[in-house]
């Protein structure tokens, strides 16, 4: 496997977390004509703009005030997921020889955030599936499975990630295409990023091999591929 191919597959999960905000918040409740709707829209914009702590705070408050709001629960989960991935990326940019303590702190905090997000996605998926899968919620449920797959992937549960990726693709085949042109335009992405279908194919190939021959992650290559080290 070439270095470029590995790099693309390795960061599929990170790329995917910035997409499909509208799908994540689908069925969140009233539209922007109500106070709750405006708060949900504001939280979604925070998430879209990468202001993750603000998004997390607002989604958390809405979820507390509206415990049955599955969209707010998904928004909270996605904010936590992106914070956790950001911390993991930040840890990878540090110099292991000089900043081992800070790397360890960021990795521990990242793991905690990702596990909290995973628990929230478990809740949202259980509650959504209990209501029954229909044409009206199929897309949002598919995205929830895809995002839960990303979390499992990041946490090293590759078989679980593959299962969730496949279920997400079954429920919403458009996930195989990744974010569309408008989403990429708003994020200044000229090329279409890889999709969960790419990552699912790679995981399936690796999991079919004997454990000793699998190449799921290569930390040494990850460090070499960083643009710079923070001193």
Describe the fold and architecture:
Keywords: TPR repeat. InterPro entries: TPR-like_helical_dom_sf, TPR_rpt. The chain is built from twelve helices and no strands. The chain is mainly α. It has a single domain, classed as Alpha Horseshoe (Serine Threonine Protein Phosphatase 5, Tetratricopeptide repeat). The longest helix has 32 residues. The N terminus and C terminus are likely disordered.
Task: Please provide a brief summary of the model.
The protein has 231 residues and is an all-alpha fold. The protein is built from twelve helices and no strands.
Helical content (DSSP H or I, runs of 4+)? 55-70%
**What is the CATH level 1 assignment?**
Mainly Alpha
Total of DSSP H or I helical runs spanning 4+ residues = 12
- What CATH architecture label applies? Alpha Horseshoe
The helix/strand series, from N terminus to C terminus, equals HHHHHHHHHHHH
How many domains make up the coordinates?
1
* Class of secondary structure makeup: mainly alpha
The CATH superfamily is known as Tetratricopeptide repeat domain
**β-strand amount:** under 5%
Give the biggest sheet.
none
What integer is the average pLDDT? 78
Residue stretches low in confidence (pLDDT < 50, at least 5 long) are 1-23, 180-189, 220-231
Shape: globular
Cα gyration radius (Å): 18 Å
- Got a strand count? 0
CATH fold-type name? Serine Threonine Protein Phosphatase 5, Tetratricopeptide repeat
Report how far apart the termini are.
31 Å
Keywords: TPR repeat
TPR repeats: 142-175
């Amino acid at each position: 496997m070439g270095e470029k191919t590995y790099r693309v597959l390795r960061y599929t999960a990170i790329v995917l977390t910035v997409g499909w905000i509208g799908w994540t918040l689908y069925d969140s409740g009233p539209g922007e004509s109500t106070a709750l709707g405006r708060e949900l829209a504001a939280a979604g914009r925070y998430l879209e703009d990468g202001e993750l702590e603000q998004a997390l705070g607002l989604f958390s408050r809405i979820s507390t005030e509206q415990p049955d709001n599955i969209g707010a629960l998904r928004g909270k989960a996605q904010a936590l997921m992106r914070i956790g991935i950001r911390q993991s990326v930040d840890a990878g940019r540090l110099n292991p020889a000089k900043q081992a303590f800070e790397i360890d702190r960021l990795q521990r905090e990242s793991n905690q955030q990702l596990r909290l997000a995973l628990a929230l996605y478990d809740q949202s998926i259980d509650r959504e599936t209990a209501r029954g899968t229909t044409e009206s919620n199929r897309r949002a449920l598919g995205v929830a499975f895809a995002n839960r797959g990303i979390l499992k992937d990041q946490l090293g549960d590759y078989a679980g990630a593959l299962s969730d990726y496949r279920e997400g693709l079954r429920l919403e085949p458009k996930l195989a295409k990744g974010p569309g042109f408008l989403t990429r335009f708003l994020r200044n992405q000229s090329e279409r990023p890889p999709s969960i279908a790419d990552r699912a194919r790679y995981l399936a190939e690796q999991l079919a091999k004997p454990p000793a021959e699998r190449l799921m992650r290569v930390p040494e290559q990850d460090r070499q591929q960083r643009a710079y080290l923070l001193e």
